[in-house]
Amino acid sequence: RWLHLRGRFKQGIERMALRASRVLRGSVVAGGVAYTPGSRQRFPLPPGGYTCEETRPKLFIPGPIEFSPEVLHAFSRGSRAHTDATIIEEFGQSLEMLRECFLTKDGQPFILSGSGAMGWDAVATNLLMPGERGLVLSSGHFSDRFIDCFVQYKCDITIIDAPRPGTRPCNIEVEKALSEAVKAGKPYKIITITGVDTSTAVLADLQKLCEITRSVSPTTLIVVDAVCSAIGEELRMDEWGIDFVHTASQKAIGVPAGLGIMIASQRCMASLPSKDKIPNSFVNLQNWLPVMEAYEARKPSYFATPATNTIGALRVGLDQILATPGGVDGYFKQHRDCANMVRSELAGMGLKLLTETPAIASNLLSCVRYPEGKKATEVLPEMKKKGWIVAAGLHPKCANEYFRIGHMAYSTTGRVNYLERLLIDLKTVIGR
What are phi and psi of 14, to 5 degrees? Predict the structure, then answer.
């Protein structure tokens, strides 16, 4: 009864907001601020798209996600110049905290304006030169897009695919490929591993793959696409011998989209070619290295304008992660505990995962198969009506068979009640 009344109340608010915005073709008021839409707008929208927080559907996709009030407050502060001493300080603190979050003492962090996909370009242009080869492991759609990036730059790569969606590439095949390359006198320069593929929720066997690579092909650089895994999934850069990690701000790091984040081991940095040999300008790490070093020394520097407001939010977001009881390990545990709760509830509804076994499923999202007799058009729109945005399936081979629920960062650490209510509503929608 309470859920029914709550749903009707939210629908009533949305209808009133829609009616008001159709009538008020002049200024729209939101949060006490009057805003006059431009003449080119066919439909006036308040700042942020919704008239109030109550009518905004809550995001439970695999990123962007819900953000903490403190992060949003930092993000919405007034504009500052990239030479402002406070921005330089926040940038420097963020670089230092990234080392702590990735569990490395001397890794070189990079923070660039851009999306996580920008990391693919950075890897393809900085770490693979003509005549060098890469071994690429694919566990889903985003691994395949990484491959597309290598192809675009005409890189020499060998691909090891997962047998089917929801499974991992075979470790034995990986070891064999590395070993054969070493025996032929042509070891791979890099191996790339997708920490979690956002399309399948498959969690890489990262520690074991690092052990195999270090043992069989010790000169090979280990590269991790951690866009959907950092810093929620366990990743120990120094201990496991990882050489390069790239990720983005809008997932488990818990900060609005707009930052491409990378961190390189000293071994990786020593392998970089000179600036003029790297076939890219913006993601040329040699262009950015002096800038990062200057910011960490609390000095101004410039190559391209940083996303200053997002840098301010990043500093707050990283500080919140490190303030978790138990630090980064505590943050890992929070996500494991939340994933166990979600999987238990889904199993109680009779729902199955796309991933072959729960043991290889990410702690940050769940790919859930539609129950028999249900399809996307009967689940996703109904969930939105109840105030939740969950994501459709994405893998080209089975996109219509499942949907995705993101459970990471503030959604698990600060607003677990959101997730609990979402699961209650999901049970209603699927009729269980």
Answer: -65, -40
